[in-house]
Design goal:
This protein has about 450 residues and is mainly beta. It has no helices and 40 strands.
């Protein structure tokens, strides 16, 4: 697999470019302009003028509408692709606007007020609005089921945390979970099949993860890191136990659940027993293992031509065979000294076989864990990793370091690719078919086509 030549270069506001869910269009925001382009011809299909600088855009799930917003001025406007004359505009009131998102039915917009005063649910059909009060935190703790039928949020009232579950067809409260077995509720996450809700407490003396079944309307599993014992069928190099529960991530199939702790540990739980199946400690020393592959970035000074005496730096990834190798630890100023360094990347591949991992303590290192064969690939780069993006159709990963090149990983190899016109690449947007990708910079985006050579 490799990235091919660019198709076109676009000017954008800060990384504001997105593919529609059906893969037919992509939207770009530049200054006050919203431009819709065809994914087949890359030509403009329609364009709209927003009332101010566009700070946010999002496609509706049915690919019919695009939402644009100016967060500072609390202005939101919705445009229709098939009916360009139609517009829907709303301005949040005195509570201010922290963030905005679509509901899964593409008929409602959810806005989050400043200081978590409330969530407002706006109807595009009748312009009615419903409110949910006392939300514990903002967009991060609002979770729709993957099928879009339910919404779960953490609510805090007079120091007590509860979970409220709403049905999205009526926006009426369906269920309220007290969770008395938890000292506090620090996170929630739905399973891929929309049936199970993970609820966890992170920092207390007794961190705990509860798995709640919405079908049985009861808890079906509990995981307590402090009570974990090593699973005898596996011999681990690391005998550390998980300290606390920082975050969780479901495998796309729902068969495993990745749980991260505050001591650079990851545990994979079985979805039947909810017991540890595998564990990984992010050791800063890469030790001898014939399965592990280590790719290290090197900068080679290359001559421009035989007639030219000037040189340029070429970035390459080299596979390293010597062991041990020390992983570079980040400087304190690279993360907030008043908070705990945590996992800022934890993403399964489309197939679920690979888990990409980055921790703030090691900002230039990426672990890629083959969880079926239990071995690792390491990418040791020169600059801090700012984002990754898995191809939605195969085991193919792009890594970004806020520099003028992109790193590409597959199970067979890892390579370094220069970006066109020295664009500083920050992130990417994959097309749903995985055959081309939008590379995003600060104010530019470029389309690359991918070729599957595997």
């Amino acid at each position: 697999m490799s990235l091919e030549v660019e198709k076109d270069l676009f000017r954008i506001n800060n990384q504001l470019c997105e593919f529609s869910t059906d893969g037919r269009f992509f939207a770009l925001a530049f200054q006050t302009n919203l431009i819709i382009k065809s994914c087949q011809t890359f030509e403009s299909v329609c364009s709209f003028v927003f009332t101010d600088i566009i700070e946010y855009l999002e496609w509706s799930k049915n690919s019919e509408y695009v939402l644009c917003a100016n967060i500072k001025k609390t202005i939101i406007q919705v445009y229709s692709i098939h009916y360009p004359e139609w517009k829907y505009k709303l301005i949040e009131g005195s509570a201010g606007l922290e963030s905005v998102t679509w509901s899964p039915d593409s008929k409602h917009i959810l806005t989050f007020s400043n200081f978590n005063i409330q969530i407002s649910i706006w109807s595009l059909e009748n312009r009615n609005v419903n409110h949910i009060q006392n939300v514990k935190s903002s967009l991060n703790n609002l979770h729709f089921t993957p099928n879009g039928k339910k919404l779960a949020i953490i609510v805090s009232n007079e120091g007590e945390d509860t979970i409220e579950i709403y049905k999205t067809n009526t926006w009426k409260l369906h269920k309220k979970l007290i969770c008395g077995r938890l000292n506090s509720i620090d996170g929630i996450c739905w399973s891929p099949n929309s049936e199970l809700l993970c609820i966890w407490c992170s920092f207390s003396n007794e961190p705990k993860l509860i798995i709640y079944s919405s079908l049985l309307e009861s808890d079906i599993g509990v995981f307590c890191p402090t009570q974990t014992v090593d699973v005898p069928q596996f011999e681990y190099k690391y005998c550390k136990k998980l300290k606390g529960i920082e975050s969780i991530k479901w495998m796309p199939s729902g068969q495993l659940l990745a749980v991260t702790g505050f001591n650079e540990m990851i545990v994979l739980l079985n979805h039947v027993t909810w017991k540890p199946l595998l564990q990984l400690y992010l050791d800063p020393i890469i030790k001898e293992n014939y399965l592990h592959k280590v790719y290290e970035e090197r900068i080679i000074q290359t001559k421009q031509s035989s007639k030219n005496t000037s040189f340029y730096n070429k970035h390459v990834l080299e596979e390293k065979s010597e062991r041990p190798i020390n992983i570079k630890i980040g400087r304190k100023e690279d993360f907030n000294r008043f908070s705990i360094a945590n996992f800022d990347i934890l993403e399964f591949s489309f197939c679920g076989q690979y888990l990409a991992i980055k921790h703030q303590l090691y900002p230039t290192a990426l672990w890629i864990w083959n969880i079926i064969d239990d071995y690792l690939d390491y990418l040791l780069l020169e600059n801090n990793i700012v984002a990754i993006k898995w191809n939605p159709t195969r085991a193919h990963l792009l890594i970004f370091c806020e520099c003028a090149h992109v790193f590409e990983w597959t199970p067979q190899k890892a390579v370094c690719l220069p970006t066109p016109r020295n664009i500083i690449a920050l992130d990417a947007r994959w097309h749903s078919q995985g055959n081309f990708v939008l590379l995003c910079g600060y104010n530019k985006a470029v389309i690359y086509k991918t070729e599957n050579k595997s």
